[in-house]
Every structure is written in structure tokens, then in C-alpha cells.
Design brief:
Elements lengths: L3 E3 L5 E3 L6 H31 L4 H13 L2 E2 H8 L3 H13 L3 E6 L2 E9 L1 H23 L4 H29 L2
Antiparallel strand pairs: 1-2, 3-5, 4-5
Helix pairs in contact: 1-2, 3-4
């Protein structure tokens, strides 16, 4: 395949010696769209959390526990990027709300495992996400399977890159 090389995704890509004006415009639109989605996401999660009397950090910690399963205090701190004292406060708040519970690790009684009450959390949160989820599913219908694969790949890779930058910022600035 002359004129093509393997891209990061493993798919053939056309070689580019210079960035065309059209591509530059697409990159600028993607950058702006990413910023707009980021802002909308923060605002959405803040609104959902406020409806339930939580902070956005509380709501996202619950999401981490729902997606990744039970974990220790230290693991939750690592997953959320919060300082350990902040995680202790977060766990206390969410335990009082009966969204999660602490249990002793059966293999090591010194360790405490934090687990989410998924039925309670989903029962409280899913109705607030339903309208947005329906809109997304309507939007997905505009795209072919190949386009959705590319979108899903991009979003997954963007999250990995963003998490890497978060780690770098924290190391560089000691936060």
C-alpha cells in the first residue's frame, strides 16, 4: 500500500508531509468540541450531584466504585486522585447516606474494603441520567458501526491520555 503507513490505531493512514488547512480546521473544531464537552460534563455531573445533595466528587467516586467494584481506602484514593484524608471524609459522607459500606477484608482483617450499594445508587441516579442517555442513543443512530468504533476508540484513548496528564500534573506540582 504505497503512500500509507500504520497509524496508532493500527489502521492504515495516509502519510502527511504538511498539515492541510482542512485538517487544521478539523483539529481546531475537535479541540473546541472537546472543551465544550468537558464543560458540559462537569456542569451535568454537578447538577446531578446537587439534586441528590452530593458533591460532584462524591458522585464520581460512586461511579468509580460502580465501574471498578469494591476497593480499599487507598485504592479509592488512587482511583479518584484524592488525598487520603479527603477520601476518609468522602467515605464517611457516603456511608451516612447509605450509598456505600465498609467491611473487613476476609483475607486480612486489618484492611477495610469499601463497597457501593449498587441498587441504592442506581435507583437514585439512573432517573437523573435517563434523559441524557436517551439523547446519546439517538445521537449514536447518526453514525455507522465503523464511525461508532472510531468514536469509542477515540474516547477511550482520550481518557487514558487525560488521566496520564493528571498524574503528571500532580507529580510536577506536588498535589
Amino acid at each position: 500500500m504505497s503512500g500509507e503507513s500504520q497509524g496508532r490505531s493500527g489502521r492504515p493512514q495516509q502519510k502527511r508531509s504538511v498539515t492541510t488547512a482542512v485538517r487544521q480546521n478539523l483539529i481546531e473544531r475537535a479541540d473546541l468540541g472537546g472543551r465544550e464537552v468537558s464543560t458540559a460534563t462537569v456542569m451535568f455531573h454537578d447538577a446531578v450531584a446537587r439534586v441528590r445533595g452530593l458533591s460532584a466528587t462524591d458522585e464520581k467516586a460512586l461511579d468509580v466504585l460502580l465501574r471498578k467494584g469494591p476497593m480499599t481506602h487507598a485504592e479509592l484514593a488512587a482511583e479518584t486522585g484524592l488525598a487520603r484524608p479527603s477520601v476518609t471524609d468522602l467515605i464517611d459522607r457516603l456511608e451516612r447516606r447509605r450509598y456505600l459500606k465498609r467491611t473487613r477484608d476476609p483475607s486480612d482483617g486489618r484492611r477495610v474494603i469499601v463497597s457501593v450499594d449498587s441498587e441504592r445508587v442506581l435507583g437514585d441516579m439512573e432517573p437523573l441520567f435517563a434523559g441524557f442517555a436517551a439523547r446519546l442513543h439517538t445521537l449514536y443512530e447518526r453514525y455507522s458501526d465503523d464511525e461508532l468504533r472510531a468514536i469509542a476508540d477515540f474516547l477511550t484513548r482520550a481518557a487514558v491520555e487525560q488521566n496520564a496528564v493528571v498524574g503528571e500534573l500532580k507529580r510536577q506540582h506536588g498535589v
